Every structure is written in structure tokens, then in C-alpha cells.
Amino acid sequence: MLIILKRIWRLTLLAFSGRAKWRGLGLYGVVLALQFVGVWFGVQLINQNRAFYDALEQMNAPEALKQIGVFFFIISISASSFLIGTWLQENLQMMLRTRLTELALERWMAGRAYWHLRAGYSPNPVDNPDQRIAEDSNNFNELLLYLTLGFISSIVSLFTFVAVLWGLSDFALSFTLFGFDVVIPRYMVWTAFIYVALSTWITHMLGGRLKSRYFMQERREADFRHALMQLRENAEIVARAGGEEAEHRRMADRFRAIQKNWRMVINQQLILGLFTRPYNQTVLRIPTFLSTPAYFAGNVTLGGMMAMASAFSQVTTTLSWFIFQYRRLAEFAAVSERLDGLFAATRDLAPMPDVPRAITHRVEGTDLILRGVQLFTPKGEALRPVPFLHLGAGARVWICGPSGQGKSTLLAAISGLWPYGAGDITRPKGKLCFLPQGPFTAADSLAGMLTYPDDPADTDAAALAAALTAVGLSDRISMLETGGAQSIAGLSQGEQQRIAIARALLAQPDVLIMDEATSALDPVAERQMLSMIRQHLPQAMVICVAHRAPTGLDITQTLALGEGGRELAG
Ligand SMILES: Nc1ncnc2c1ncn2[C@@H]1O[C@H](COP(=O)(O)OP(=O)(O)OP(=O)(O)O)[C@@H](O)[C@H]1O
């Protein structure tokens, strides 16, 4: 329980941090004050209720009519204050969500947490970060406001309505038990407390395990969504492999996991509902039934009885806040756990334990120097030692070697991304451009893909068109502003690689790193593209990983990784 509260507290401090902190706290105060106004109107309604029924009992028509007017007056003002409060609360919710989302995104990008915290790369991988950032930071704020405001105003209501009930129920319950005369003064007040304490305990017993079930449900929903997303991203591969059945099976498995957990959730909800549903329905009637002995004994008027019934139900309603909010409280705990988990993981990007992390990485001068480099996989397996390499400005190296020897890992180490290994890496200063096998398709437009990660607005359309023409894709010039996926729809793998090459031409980097970036092109086109790179970027150092010799690039050096790895003269 303490752990849950600490998590909530940490997240609350984050949500109420930054520039809008005081505005946020101020708004919270106003919303809370409006809730207190609502409690005050509740008391006025009890008084009105009493006066109205007393007027009925006394057959006082003008007074009853007056009380009807009072009723509508109170309702219209309290409704307005309620609506204004809700509107302000929703504004505050967006404000807090904005802050928390900003922070979550900041942390997710800082230190490349999104890269480190993947399964297989980190001892504490973060599952479904998209759900945590997009949904949980919204749900957290909604529940935070709803539950804390509800809780505080319930406490205030409780004291207020207990005082009202205390004042109204100044009569005792007398009966004989085992020959003893028992007198319970103000029994309506005590009954309310005992009634709710008992109910709360039963609710907790019946619904205790729901929290972990809700948590699991969210996770399974996210896994299912993720599988569907993967199908969308790999539509081409699945369709060509005729993988519909396998995909269907995978989706069905994930959906079955949802169903299984859902069944447990609803069974537990049913058990909880067996108690809470009748409880909800009886809570408004019980006080009337309980006060009938006092009414028949002449201790209380009809108006007094009705007012007492209202006060009693207000007391029990506020006391039973915990029962009514049980599901939300469980959800709140689950959401906080996920969101706090994300922040905790990003605070400390813990590396894999017991794997060496002794690479000295420098960015200086104009040369690339690899000295005594030995890389490891995140599991701690040593890759082939990397031979000594010294590349001067404008040099072009081909890194080759059998699959799985660590070529891509070496590129990641040169970029400063790969933490596992030992040795010295000195990389030249200046702009670095990395070309993977495919283009970056998540950009919002083709122009965005061509200039990634720079802002497309900073490059003029003529330059973009020239780059597309240079790589033989002039027919896509008209689609520069079209959405990412749509603008490359129908392009072959080789054509997609041409887009990535156009990006390198536009970037004019000092160091160009290519990882199988021309693997899908035919040898003639590959030679053409590579010689164009050489001509357009004559000063750039090019580091090229490829299985076949990058003819056209006019390589100056070759680095062979793997059995008998050695640096060869170009
Ligand atoms: N996160 C990881 N967890 C476990 N092993 C990993 C991880 N990342 C890389 N490896 C392993 O490190 C080795 C080198 O991988 P890398 O991708 O660098 O090879 P490569 O030489 O580029 O292969 P290819 O030519 O097939 O692209 C492989 O055996 C790979 O399985």
C-alpha cells in the first residue's frame, strides 16, 4: 500500500511540475472549493426536504409551494457550480496530461532510452511503452483528479453530514436483550458507521485480486494491438510467404490470452457485484426503514424522518466512497505502477549485468581509429576482435565478413551507441549520416523521409526534387508532401534504398555509414548509386558494410571481420 502511495506521489509531483505548476495548483484549489460549495448545497437540500415534508404533514400548501420554489432555486445554482467545476477539472486534466506526456517523451528519448530498454538489450526492458506514454499518462491524471477531489470532498461531506445527522437524530433506540434494557442514543449515527465499515471490509475481501487482473488485462490488450501493428508493418512479407494462417494463429493466441484474463476479471467482478449491487440499491432506503421506530414512537416528524433519511444516505454514500470507487482505485494503482515503471526504468538505464562496458569513445579530429576493439553481445558473448583500423578524411572502407560476425554491431559502436565491449574508438567530428537497409518510413511525408532527422522545411523543394531525380525517382517528385507510407507505396526494396541514398546526398555528411544500404539493388544500379555517392560526397568518409564488394565506391581500405579477420589494403 505504501509502495502504491509513493508511486502516486512521485507521479503527482511530476504532473504538477514545471512552468504551469502554480496555475495547476490554483485550478485544483478552485475545483476543490466548488466541490465544497456542492456539499453546502447538499445541506441546504436536506433543510428544504425537511421543511417540505413538514409542510405536507401540516397540510400547509403555501409553505409546500414555497419549498418547491426553493428546491428549484438550489438546484439551478448547484448545477451551474457543478458544471463550471467539471469544465475546470477537465482543463486541468489536459494541463497535467501535457506535462506528464512531455516528461515521459523527454525521458524516453534521453540517453536513447527507447533503444536501450528493449527486450534483449536491457535487464529491465519496458513492455508496451506506447501504451504507457499515450494512455497511462492520460488515465493517471484523470483518475488522480477524480479520486483525490472525490476523496477530499467525501471527507468534508462526511463531517458535515454526520453533524447534520447528529442534530436530527436526537432520540435513542431502546430494546430488551437477554433481560437487559439496552438504550442506544443517536443510534442512526452509529448504525451508519457500522453499516459502512462492514460493507467496506466485505468489498475489500471480495475484490482484492481485481487490481492485478486489470493490470494484466491492459498488458494483454497492448500485446494484441502490437501484433496487429506488426502485421500491418510486415504486410508484404506475410502476404508473399502466405503467412495468413500463422498470423491468424498468432493473433488468436494473443486474443485468447485477453479472453482468459477477461473471464477472470468478470468472474471476480460478479462476485464483487453480488455484494455491491444490492448495496447500492439499498443504501438510500435503509435509513427510512431504520427510522420508522422513532417515527411511530412520535420522536420525529415526517419531515424530520425524511431529512434524516437524506442525511443518513449522504453519510453512508460518502463513507462508502471506497466501495463505489473500488474498481477505479484498482485501475489507478495499475496505471501508476506502469507509468512509474517507465519513469524508473528511464532514470537508470541499467546495462546488462556482467557484460564489459569499457569502450572509450572519442569524437575528435578528422580520422577514424579503431584500436583493440572487442565487442560483446548483450548476453556477454564475445564477438570476433576488430582488427586495427585507421581511416583518414575522405577514405572509403568496406567492412565485410560472414553473417553474425558483428559488422552491424561495429557500426553501432562507431556511432557511440553500442555499450558492450572494450577498446578505443575515435570518430571524426562533423555530421554523421547512417543509412540502414531501408528508408525511414515513419516520417510524415516523403520530404520528411528525405531530410530525416532534419526539418524538411529547411530544405528547398528544388533540392529535394534534384535528389530524387539523381536516384532515378523523379516520378515521386509530385508526392513530396504526401504521407510517409503512402508516398513510398508500391516502391520496390531497391527503389526504397534509392530514397535512403537521396537522403545521404541531401545531408552532405562528413561521415557516411552504410549498412547493407544497397543490398537490394542490381549490380549495375548498385555501381551507379555508389559512384554517384563518391562524386557527390568527395570529402566524406564512407564506412560501408556489405556482403559484396561495393564497386563504384572506389574503396580505399577493406576490413574483414570474422575468422582470421584482418585489415586489407584497398
Ligand atoms: N540484443 C542482442 N541479443 C543477443 N545477441 C545479439 C543482440 N544483438 C546482436 N546480437 C548478436 O551479435 C552478433 C553480431 O550481430 P550483427 O548484427 O552485428 O552481425 P552482422 O555481422 O552484421 O550480421 P549480418 O551480416 O547478418 O547482418 C550476432 O550473433 C547477433 O545474434
UniProtKB/TrEMBL annotation:
<keyword id="KW-0067">ATP-binding</keyword>
<feature type="transmembrane region" description="Helical">
    <location>
        <begin position="25"/>
        <end position="47"/>
    </location>
</feature>
<dbReference type="GO" id="GO:0140359">
    <property type="term" value="F:ABC-type transporter activity"/>
</dbReference>
<protein>
    <submittedName>
        <fullName>ABC transporter with fused ATPase and permease domains for long chain FA substrate</fullName>
    </submittedName>
</protein>
<dbReference type="InterPro" id="IPR036640">
    <property type="entry name" value="ABC1_TM_sf"/>
</dbReference>
<dbReference type="InterPro" id="IPR003439">
    <property type="entry name" value="ABC_transporter-like_ATP-bd"/>
</dbReference>
<dbReference type="InterPro" id="IPR050835">
    <property type="entry name" value="ABC_transporter_sub-D"/>
</dbReference>
<dbReference type="InterPro" id="IPR011527">
    <property type="entry name" value="ABC1_TM_dom"/>
</dbReference>
<dbReference type="GO" id="GO:0016887">
    <property type="term" value="F:ATP hydrolysis activity"/>
</dbReference>
<dbReference type="InterPro" id="IPR027417">
    <property type="entry name" value="P-loop_NTPase"/>
</dbReference>
<dbReference type="GO" id="GO:0005886">
    <property type="term" value="C:plasma membrane"/>
</dbReference>
<dbReference type="InterPro" id="IPR017871">
    <property type="entry name" value="ABC_transporter-like_CS"/>
</dbReference>
<keyword id="KW-0547">Nucleotide-binding</keyword>
<feature type="transmembrane region" description="Helical">
    <location>
        <begin position="67"/>
        <end position="88"/>
    </location>
</feature>
<feature type="domain" description="ABC transmembrane type-1">
    <location>
        <begin position="30"/>
        <end position="331"/>
    </location>
</feature>
<dbReference type="Pfam" id="PF06472">
    <property type="entry name" value="ABC_membrane_2"/>
</dbReference>
<keyword id="KW-0472">Membrane</keyword>
<dbReference type="Pfam" id="PF00005">
    <property type="entry name" value="ABC_tran"/>
</dbReference>
<keyword id="KW-0812">Transmembrane</keyword>
<feature type="transmembrane region" description="Helical">
    <location>
        <begin position="143"/>
        <end position="167"/>
    </location>
</feature>
<keyword id="KW-0813">Transport</keyword>
<dbReference type="GO" id="GO:0005524">
    <property type="term" value="F:ATP binding"/>
</dbReference>
<feature type="domain" description="ABC transporter">
    <location>
        <begin position="350"/>
        <end position="568"/>
    </location>
</feature>
<feature type="transmembrane region" description="Helical">
    <location>
        <begin position="187"/>
        <end position="207"/>
    </location>
</feature>
<dbReference type="InterPro" id="IPR003593">
    <property type="entry name" value="AAA+_ATPase"/>
</dbReference>
<keyword id="KW-1133">Transmembrane helix</keyword>
